[in-house]
Specification:
Blueprint: H1 9-16, H2 19-30, E1 45-47, E2 53-55, E3 61-62, H3 77-89, H4 96-103, H5 107-126, E4 133-141, E5 157-165, E6 171-179, H6 184-194, E7 200-203, H7 209-212, E8 217-220, H8 231-248, H9 256-268, H10 275-284
Parallel strand pairs: 4-7, 7-8
Antiparallel strand pairs: 1-2, 2-3, 4-5, 5-6
Helix pairs in contact: 3-5, 3-10, 4-5, 5-9, 5-10
Bound molecules: zinc ion.
Zinc ion binds near residues 58 and 60.
Length: about 290
């Protein structure tokens, strides 16, 4: 496994300290073989003063961020890169309030940038399905509700959690998605979208799971109060709660899915050499919701 590498601030500034450097980097990612007009395929363009590229043939103005999560923002590229750097260099993540001060933007802009970064993480992870052996369960996120029933049937946010394991039983990739309920239909929707057909799913055998998982090999595991069953999955759930509480100071139902996406993105790339590079790649992926 390659050694994990953190990019120093000095190295970051050398690579991404100016608008030109950021734009050049994104240009290389978008057009590794040189400029190609997205409209007519022409390979020649003028660089405009606003940083766009105008096709010499059809005069279409192409931008390095068009169609990506950074599109149509007024924030300079240097601030986007700085935000990505700060997000990926601190494993606890960064709040909008911290980002606001670090990169001198308004709270609203900091909040917007972070929500776009988390969206990019989510989009990226949604392109992969878990496969092999999967631990699966539902979980509840939220503060304690006084005088109310704990666990299933409470007012807390409901979340599906799936974790793939390697052949030694160690965790590989993680997915956590909020859900309106844990009925059969929702379980099936989650599983079909996020888990490859034919995978083995281990769950605690809650009544709605079995009939919902007919596309998979379902292995119900016996519930034990000490929690040996679905051991890693329950560790992930506590770690996700700690991450969100620590960084965002609460477990709000609003934005929960976005915080979970960030936690999963980080976890699934914990052994990658550079989270920052993975994040840039995710930010450049084209989005359909823009
Ligand atoms: Zn053109």
């Amino acid at each position: 496994m390659a050694k994990k590498r953190k990019i120093s601030l000095q190295e970051f500034l050398e690579r991404f300290g100016t608008e030109e450097k950021c734009r050049e980097y994104l240009f290389q990612m978008r057009w590794p073989q040189g400029f190609v007009c997205p409209k007519c395929g022409c390979k020649h363009a003028y660089t405009m003063s606003n940083g766009r590229y105008q096709c010499t043939n059809c005069r279409y103005q192409a931008s390095v961020t068009a169609g990506t999560i950074m599109h149509r923002t007024h924030a300079p590229l240097t601030k986007w890169f700085m935000a990505m750097y700060l997000v990926s260099n601190d494993k606890r993540g960064i709040s909008a309030l911290q980002l606001q001060y670090q990169i001198s933007v308004t709270y609203k802009t900091a909040w917007y940038m972070l929500s776009r970064i988390r969206k990019a993480m989510e989009n990226r992870d949604d392109t992969h399905q878990l496969k092999g052996i999967i631990e699966f369960d539902d979980a509840f996120f939220g503060g304690p509700t006084v005088g109310k029933k704990r666990g299933r049937g409470t007012e807390k946010a409901k979340v599906f959690v799936a974790l793939s394991l390697d052949n030694k039983g160690s965790p590989l990739y993680l997915k956590m998605k909020t859900t309106k309920d844990i009925k059969q239909k929702s379980v099936k929707e989650f599983a079909v979208k996020h888990i490859a057909k034919g995978s083995t799913i281990k769950s605690d055998g809650y009544r709605s799971f079995g009939p919902a998982l007919t596309d998979f090999v379902h292995e119900p595991v016996k519930y034990t109060p000490k929690g040996e069953a679905l051991h890693w999955l329950h560790i992930m759930i506590s770690n996700a709660k700690a991450f969100i509480l620590g960084t965002y100071h609460g477990l709000p139902q609003k934005n929960l899915s976005s915080y979970l996406a960030e936690f999963c993105f980080r976890f699934s790339r914990r052994n990658f050499t550079s989270l920052f590079d993975r994040l840039i790649i995710s930010m450049m992926a084209f989005t359909v919701d823009d």
